[in-house]
Design brief:
Distance between the termini of chain A: 39 Å
Largest sheet of chain A: 6 strands, mixed
Helix content of chain A: 10-25%
Oligomer: homodimer
Pathway (chains A, B): Cofactor biosynthesis; molybdopterin biosynthesis
Keywords (chains A, B): Magnesium, Metal-binding, Molybdenum, Molybdenum cofactor biosynthesis, Transferase
Strand order of the largest sheet of chain A: 6-3-5-4-8-7
Family (chains A, B): Belongs to the MoeA family.
CATH superfamily of the largest domain in chain A: MoaB/Mog-like domain
Number of strands of chain A: 24
GO molecular function, one term (chains A, B): molybdopterin molybdotransferase activity
Largest interface: A-B, 119 and 119 residues
EC number (chains A, B): 2.10.1.1
Amino acid sequence: MVERRKPIKVNDAVDRVMKFAVSGSVSYLSIEQAYGHFLGEDLVADHDVPSFDRSPYDGFAIRSIDTKNASHTNPLTLEVVGEIGAGSLFEKTVGEGQTVRIMTGAQIPAGCDAVVMLELTQEFEKDSKPHIEIKRSFNQGDNISFTGEDTKSGTVLATKGTYINPGIVALLATFGYKDVPVSSKPKIGVIATGSELLEVDEALQPGKIRNSNAYMIVSQIERAGGQPVYLGQFSDDLSTCYTQVKDALNKVDFLITTGGVSVGDYDYLPEIYQMLGANVLFNKVGMRPGSVTTIAEKDGKLLFGLSGNPSACYVGFELFTRPIIRTYLHSNHQCLQKVSATLGADFLKPNPFDRFVRGYLSYDEGKLTATPAGLDKSNVVSSLGMANVLILLPGGTRGYKRGMNVKVILLEDQTGTTLESFLSD
Amino acid sequence: MVERRKPIKVNDAVDRVMKFAVSGSVSYLSIEQAYGHFLGEDLVADHDVPSFDRSPYDGFAIRSIDTKNASHTNPLTLEVVGEIGAGSLFEKTVGEGQTVRIMTGAQIPAGCDAVVMLELTQEFEKDSKPHIEIKRSFNQGDNISFTGEDTKSGTVLATKGTYINPGIVALLATFGYKDVPVSSKPKIGVIATGSELLEVDEALQPGKIRNSNAYMIVSQIERAGGQPVYLGQFSDDLSTCYTQVKDALNKVDFLITTGGVSVGDYDYLPEIYQMLGANVLFNKVGMRPGSVTTIAEKDGKLLFGLSGNPSACYVGFELFTRPIIRTYLHSNHQCLQKVSATLGADFLKPNPFDRFVRGYLSYDEGKLTATPAGLDKSNVVSSLGMANVLILLPGGTRGYKRGMNVKVILLEDQTGTTLESFLSD
């Protein structure tokens, strides 16, 4: 006889899983390798920026008081008494009627309080000495980048868990992070189940399909920031499968299985959870695809029993596994952003359950449009390649029409949002 | 005396560089490593999907004709004569009054033309044989996924140059790409110049700053899809620098230098281009930051002379180097997408030149808002970390007000756009 399962709401399911979210450890990587990782600690400025008053332009450092009466009709002549390359210093003090050639980024010499851009000067020699002519007046502080005007020492510039993009790398270098504290990536085991599965290099056979879920999930884990450990396919024998899962749990931080969670006769996962003594958080979610998604917990370790159907597997991962990975990476923006968009095409199927439709986002005159990416049969993979959003179509309607307002989940976005915001949107 | 340079427009500069864009070679990676690379050839379906008529649900395969008169008041009883797990086959033909238990993904047995979902059946035993009861009628084809209904064999599912995301990985696996043709990544040399530069692990010294550009550019190269080769800092001696550049050009596909392109006395690059006999495409662009960006070409190899100023360096890379990298990777969407958004804050500086302001994009009720990320002094790095767009503020105005319509360039987007579209927007 078949077990009847009671579906729970998607948000309740997310919430239930997130109760078991844990943070991982912190390790150190050299700055050359930090891109694409996640900050393991807050990034803090170790000095003021700029750390000295400096010139933002190539030009001449001057005393503004000398220029008080300078104009087109009354040009001012100054003697060039030295030059300062970026990184070098002018040791003397600049006096009345004097100027110093200064390069971009160099320190303002003592006595000077403004910079004239090179383009506004005329250079010439007088008595074999270099001089410049200036045809306007300057105020104290003109063209000077002052100490600390960008950032004060001690400022937190990015919080732990932040994705390390090229801008963050620039900050890390600026503030002396030769070794960067990064969040250790969780090791996530992947086991594919299904006696219909051929390996990717096998020829097709009647009734069989190639195993695409495992490779897809491995890539999703990488995109989310985890470290995938592909453990191969399940055996056909229950007790062997049980041993496989038990052994896997000792080696990884979380375990994902794809397939085997339905109520079919070859779906071993429910029985394995029982044999393990695992706490099944839910085994049916009120959503399509992915209603059979089952998540269990054993001694604090999560077991994600994702559907064997590729689309359902994909959606289940992004909804339930990704926020667990991002929490492990110390992010407080664990979830993917949910934003409003206009539906770009009719989706007229009756919709008893919340539906997550793969789609692509387009930008038209500042407005977002999300269009379902092809036929959304739950076993279709061809639309997955172009999808960059999941379109959320709440259940309980007869379908949706082009032009309606919908929520979409941004799949490639690294900013993310908090759990609270994800659940309340 | 100082050289006066004539600025060219940003789009003209992009166009001039792109005349020297070349495509790279194709190599093969195992599917486990393909994520994050770029397709070196079109991805083609090697078979119909599904490749056989199959069941999208767990249930029972039936002959629809048997159910013609079935209803709540007139339930139909069928004998269960076998079962088909996913991946296995039913060898006989199903006859009148018979049904076969069928798992999700399994092949429809001969004789059957519809599937009843498990939830709509009642199982029981009669004469020690398994039976089911059905209380409604079904049409031919109900709940069957037909051969080829998703994709026909030979269909191009993604074109060469496409970024390999998890969905593309699923397609590669489905269609038997054990070894994936990927675009070879261009090797891009990076040399940092500037006597003011300290290495990232050095203590600060008066007048000096730590080298952040090199690490930032290395990350930008990775994000764009190139393979960075950090060649260290320039020497202080011109002839040594010349040798460094000449040697570097033999080792890499393109060369990026940061700094040394101004008209300052320590800016060696203009002289080095001359010594090399390189063709300088432009040495001044009508934009801020990055007006001194200089790009030269020697025997078909591009030398990107980016500004030493971090923001200018960042912008110059995304505008000029990234499309060259994506072309090398066989993409016809070489450029970053330019989309419309509402300006989220005043930007009141007079604006003689086109300005590229780092900003972040937010999504409010389906509308895009782009807000400048902090003070936009061109030597400021602290706002780089949160930036996910460049806000384009065309020159010739007295400034921009909150609420105005602006174009923004999406920095983290993998979809991109064609050169034509980028230049016409």
